Amino acid sequence: MSNRIGNWELIDHYATGGVAEIYRARDTRSGEVVIIKRIRPDLEFDPEKHAGFYRELQLALLCTHKNLIRGIAKGTQNGADFGVLEYVDGPDLAAVLERAKRAGLALTPEVASWLVSEVLDGIDFAYRLTDGAGRELGLVHRDLTPRNIFVRYDGQVRVGDFGSSLASKQEPAEAVVGTPGYLSPEQAQLQPIDHRSDVYAIGLLLQELLTGEPAFDLSNKWTGKKNDAALLKAHQKNQRRPLPPTVPDDLRLVIEIATALDPADRYQSAREMKKGLLRSEHPPRPESAAELSALVRRLFAAELRASRIPGLASFA
């Protein structure tokens, strides 16, 4: 492969995904460090996987909000499609939570509230995206998990991976789409879903941030065997782990509303859930970004040093 794709000079191979090769690259015009996702040349054509790749790129180009991974460009070179995306300089939230647990550290209620509010702001923007005729797309992310939320070393938060998203007016899925442990009851029952399904997932996220454990017991992982049916049934009946007494009462209320079994009993939008956080005794505050930044830099000190390239801040 050439060391250049269009106007972007490749820096290194960053990762390999199920559909794409992922590279860090530098814009030869502006010097900006970016991510390039390129369809894997060794991959046989899979309509569903390829459609998800293109959908993610198309939506990323519309995502101009500070809490969404920004799309920059898309194109084709030597018959392979690629997309250029914002480079998020930091780990995903799943890695942060896992490493914090191993280190015996936890997010404070204030940081958890702020982080969730940033996710809500980004998702609310995505919900309001419109087509060429000005009509709202009515998107539902369907896969809001810690692995699809990223924390930069400066404490800023980004939501990514809209490859599983759909318009809420479409027909219900024929199979469960989403990640075990973060499915809404209606998702697990293959019922029609809307924004309130994502609100439910964000409620689960808030619970995990405050307790250090996923809201659903994932000890029996989904492998297509008998235990998976039990986990799916737990999702359908909303059989989450009980909230421990360490969770503040005000944030406990936010979680309980967001994760109500009946969508009609939940916050009806991301914006409404954000208002619930603002009314709590632990409202989101911008200064929490510095605390989150300090935690991530402490937990990923070695990775931070190893990932430095010219043009990136040192965070010394």
Helices and strands in order:
Layout: E1 4-5, E2 8-16, E3 20-27, E4 33-39, H1 47-62, E5 71-77, E6 80-86, H2 93-103, H3 109-127, E7 139-140, E8 149-151, E9 157-159, E10 166-167, H4 185-188, H5 195-211, H6 226-237, H7 249-258, H8 270-278, H9 288-299, H10 301-306
Antiparallel strand pairs: 1-2, 2-3, 3-4, 4-6, 5-6, 7-10, 8-9
Helix pairs in contact: 3-5, 3-8, 3-9, 5-7
Structure description:
- The chain has 316 residues and is of the alpha+beta class.
- It folds into two domains: 4-87, 2-Layer Sandwich (Phosphorylase Kinase, domain 1), CATH 3.30.200.20; 93-294, Orthogonal Bundle (Transferase(Phosphotransferase), domain 1).
- It has helices at 47-62, 93-103, 109-127, 185-188, 195-211, 226-237, 249-258, 270-278, 288-299, 301-306, and strands at residues 4-5, 8-16, 20-27, 33-39, 71-77, 80-86, 139-140, 149-151, 157-159, 166-167.
- Strands 1-2-3-4-6-5 form a six-stranded antiparallel sheet, covered by helices on one side. A two-stranded antiparallel sheet has the order 7-10.
- A hairpin with a 5-residue loop joins β8 and β9 (157-159).
- The longest helix has 19 residues, at 109-127.
- It is globular.
